[in-house]
Amino acid sequence: MKFECLYHNYKPLAFSVAYQMMGSIHDAEDIVQDVYVDLKEMDLSSISEHKAYLMKMVVNKSLNFLHSARYKKEVYTGPWLPEPLVEINQDEPLHRLVHEESISYAFTVLLHNLTELERCVYILRESLSFDYATISVILNRTEQSLRKVYSRAKQKVKSPTKKTKDTLENSTLASLFINGATNGDFDPFINKLTENVILVTDGGGKVLAALNPIYGKKNVSAFLLGIYKRGSFEGIFNITKINGEQGILQEVEGVTSKAIMFANDSKGVTTIYFVMNPKKLLKTSHKFYP
User: Fold this and answer.
1) Which of 1, 31, 125, 155 is the most buried (most CB within 10 A)?
2) CATH 3.10.450.50 residue ranges for the chain
3) Of all residues in the chain, what percent carry a pLDDT higher than 70?
4) Which CATH class for the 3-78+107-157 domain?
């Protein structure tokens, strides 16, 4: 296979894996670009399994970055959440990616509750359906050890599917939330929450946000009403696709100030995510996938 064909065929998948590993669009793009540069210098005729080899390059570069001194030295203020993948244009590769790979936001958050190795093994096994022999070659670890790592990861994730709920339900939730954020009456939205709902705000120390998750329906209700009264919901709200599901973007004077996503189960909303770190919202108002 020629270099151009290999890169074109697997670029969206490479970005998907890098994004799931890193939780950052910018870092995922950098990793894919590094792979591109390395591939140009390689003799591909000597490689029999192109997909596995390419994924090996992606996961190893991701792990190297996650273990790097620069990454380890970074101190994050408050809860950390992955950067949201916002669909801007249905013709963009990103649009096809999030639908084909089903990278729901809640699932991405679950992945980042795993260790780097657990996340890597889970993605290779669950998302890419590689057998343990192939993963063993990719990570240079024994199959027996990988089975144990995967078992631990699966116990932590405890999610049979990557999608949370159907689009209609999330669209309804988004509409109810926007109504509350507009008029201050959050009761219809609160009625959709589970008793043990959690609200997580990621401001990264750049904007005012809760430094700890908000637990429980009563506390979440009080929090939402409180920040409404302080003017935190002023601006324009748009329902849009985020990580393949309906979410909300809040804009103030043309600049995105919040990305809001939900995780659900059969009983209602289990988690609300507010991404407010301006650095993570830079690419929500233009085409960003290379």
Assistant:
1) 31
2) 167-281
3) 86
4) mainly alpha
